[in-house]
Design goal:
By secondary structure, the protein is of the alpha+beta class. It has one domain: Endonuclease/exonuclease/phosphatase (Deoxyribonuclease I, Chain A, 4-Layer Sandwich), CATH 3.60.10.10. About 35% of the residues lie in helices and about 25% in strands. It is built from 10 helices and 12 strands. The strands form 2 sheets. The chain has a 6-stranded mixed sheet with strand order 3-4-2-1-12-11. A 6-stranded mixed sheet has the order 5-6-7-8-10-9. A hairpin with a 2-residue loop joins strand 6 and strand 7. Helix 5 packs parallel to helix 6. The longest helix is centred in the N-terminal third of the chain and has 28 residues. The chain is globular, with a radius of gyration of 24 Å. The N terminus is likely disordered.
């Protein structure tokens, strides 16, 4: 009887321990998640509204309403583009996001890129593109210092993420495509130069879709050249970066069929690093409208969720983390320089401007 009691006691202990061991294993192997929103918020001043025309858009009100809506969301990180002259109205509503990058200003001096986060953001750096194309037409990209906003985001548990928010050169003319390819070349070199000691997520308005096969280097420079995966491709095209027949046949591959629907301009690219694996678990496009039902932006937002898991090779990389501080004098000088540079460019293309305004 005594042996039976001992045996039953041992069995009971084993039964009690087994669930604990299983749960501990799940906790150790299962990852944590981070959710991110990418949105071109269309924060440029609207000339028609400034002139009092009925077709004008009240961008200030749009940005304020957007901020209220975003503040009710559960995203961990929000990365925006075209956050220009009405940044203050967007920012003041985002009280749930205590960590943010320093605004670079409105047009013409600002790049429109900003990051809002619920966890600390370090090492913010703005890198303008080496090449841009278009002054009056073809996107007028040369009138704003578009480029890359790099940040290092603390995801908790010793994990730090290299996050890149970009806005690439727009339009599909030959000059814009060449400039955009150079944008991706510059981005790829920056990512590869930083090494693989942290996981990486690249988001933003790429102004490119891989299914169109344009020679902008999206595949060879970023996917193949940096080892980056695309969240939409992985989750909605079975990881196939070459064949898009299903979407071309069922939805259509031209604009506006794909715009904000499939393989659109807003993207999430990612790769492992520093002993941390990243896996995209969701990706979707999202619409934001005003209370009156108006589109807040001419773009759709993109949202994605990633699971990050520490492996045996994990090593915390918190070296040289600094919080960026605003240099008001440097900012003023840069904005004045860019203002007069833009004026010079516009006057140099005065005839083109008159034709554009006349059209």
């Amino acid at each position: 009887m005594k042996h039976i009691k001992k045996t039953l006691a041992l069995l009971l202990v084993c039964l009690l321990l087994c669930p604990c061991v299983s749960l501990l294993g799940a906790a150790e192997s299962g990852g944590r998640s981070v959710s991110i929103l990418c949105y071109n918020v269309a924060g440029l001043p609207n000339i028609n509204h400034i002139l009092g025309k009925p077709e004008g858009i009240d961008v200030k009100d749009h940005q304020s309403q957007l901020g209220k809506q975003l503040n009710r969301e559960t995203y961990d990180i929000i990365a925006v583009q075209e956050d220009f002259n009405y940044h203050a109205y967007l920012e003041e509503q985002l009280t749930a996001y205590p960590y943010k990058t320093i605004h670079s200003g409105g047009v013409p001096g600002g790049d429109g890129l900003n990051v809002f986060s619920k966890t600390p953001v370090y090492n913010a750096a703005r890198i303008p593109w080496d090449e841009l194309y278009g002054i009056i037409e073809d996107g007028a990209d040369e009138l704003t210092p578009k480029g890359i906003l790099y940040t290092c985001v603390d995801l908790g548990d010793g994990v730090y993420l290299d996050l890149y928010d970009i806005h690439a050169d727009a339009y599909g003319d030959a000059g814009s495509c060449a400039a955009r390819r150079d944008n991706f070349r510059q981005l790829a070199e920056l990512i590869n130069a930083r090494g693989t000691d942290r996981p990486v997520i690249v988001t933003g308005d790429f102004n490119a879709s891989i299914h169109q096969g344009a020679d902008d280097g999206l595949y060879d420079l970023l996917y193949a050249g940096c080892g980056l995966k695309d969240a939409w491709v992985e989750l909605h095209n079975n990881g196939n970066y070459k064949n898009f027949d299903y979407w071309n046949e069922t939805v259509g591959g031209g604009w506006p069929e794909y715009w904000g629907v499939w393989d659109s301009l807003e993207k999430f690219l990612y790769r492992d690093g520093g002993g941390v694996t990243l896996e995209a678990t969701s990706f979707a496009y999202k619409d934001y409208r005003t209370e009156a039902g108006e589109d807040i932006s001419d773009h759709k937002a993109a949202e994605a969720t990633f699971t990050f898991t520490k492996t045996e090779e994990f090593k915390e990389n918190a070296e040289d983390l600094t919080v960026a501080k605003e240099d008001l004098l440097d900012s003023f000088i840069r904005k004045v320089f860019l203002f007069f540079t833009d004026l010079f460019k516009i006057f140099a293309h005065w005839d083109e401007l008159k034709v554009y305004l006349g059209g």
